[in-house]
Amino acid sequence: MINFDNFHDRTIAHFVPSPLTYREPDFVSSSGSAYWDIGDSVIRSSDHWAGQNGCSGQASCIWSLGLHVDPGEWASGVARYRDFVPRQYVDIYHPITKDDQIAAQIIQSAGGALPYPEWQSHSLQLPCWANKVFRGPSLLPVAALRLFKEDSAVQHVVCAQQARLDQILSGTDRIIIGKRMSMPEDHGLPCDM
């Protein structure tokens, strides 16, 4: 349950313009924003609101205000705790293109890794799902270690995880390449709230 103790921990909320309450704030952040707990809601007074004046959010939160705020101006708004939405980690997808399929075939046919100069001869960009690794003290895929061991002149290798190659070559239309914090649209909320 979201309340004054945790509303500021990775949440999305839309504040409605509101006058300030006539008492000292219950909390003032390091950026100077002031907060008042008013039972079922919180009032915020600030000069930075998501979507305005280059502000994309507040720390791990995205809080917007239903009012235009000029640069350097302060505005206050109120939001009910029940209207705060916790941000979650969501998957980042990469759509598989023809170039991804070609790159996966090249890497697969090379046994999972090939020297970087050979990769360059194919005139393909390095896909986001592959890695360019170098000879050195790092955790390297087995296929890259094999190439480094076979040829001491090889300094850089392009490689990919076998599971990733299998996924791409299976004909899937997209793959997961990472995670990010959710945005308003991930929760069915308007982007500008």
SSE topology sketch:
Blueprint: E1 11-17, E2 27-28, E3 34-37, E4 41-46, E5 62-65, E6 75-80, E7 85-86, E8 89-95, H1 98-109, E9 113-115, H2 116-120, E10 131-134, H3 142-150, E11 156-159, H4 162-169, E12 174-181
Parallel strand pairs: 1-5
Antiparallel strand pairs: 1-6, 1-7, 2-3, 3-4, 4-6, 8-12, 9-11, 10-11
Helix pairs in contact: 1-4
Report on this model:
The protein is α+β, with helices and mostly antiparallel strands. The protein has helices at residues 98-109, 116-120, 142-150, 162-169; strands at residues 11-17, 27-28, 34-37, 41-46, 62-65, 75-80, 85-86, 89-95, 113-115, 131-134, 156-159, 174-181. Helix 1 (98-109) crosses helix 4 (162-169). The longest helix is centred in the middle third of the chain and has 12 residues, at 98-109.
Name a few traits of the molecule.
7-stranded mixed β-sheet; 30% strand; 3-stranded antiparallel β-sheet; elongated; 193 residues; alpha+beta; 12 strands
State the secondary-structure class. Answer: alpha+beta
Succession of helices and strands: EEEEEEEEHEHEHEHE
What do the pLDDT scores average to? 91
Number of strands: 12
Shape: elongated
Q: What fraction, in percent, of the residue positions are helical?
A: 10-25%
Regions with pLDDT < 50 over 5+ consecutive residues? none
Major beta-sheet overview = 7 strands, mixed
Radius of gyration: 25 Å
Distance between the termini: 22 Å
Proportion of residues in extended strands: 25-35%
Distinct helical segment count: 4
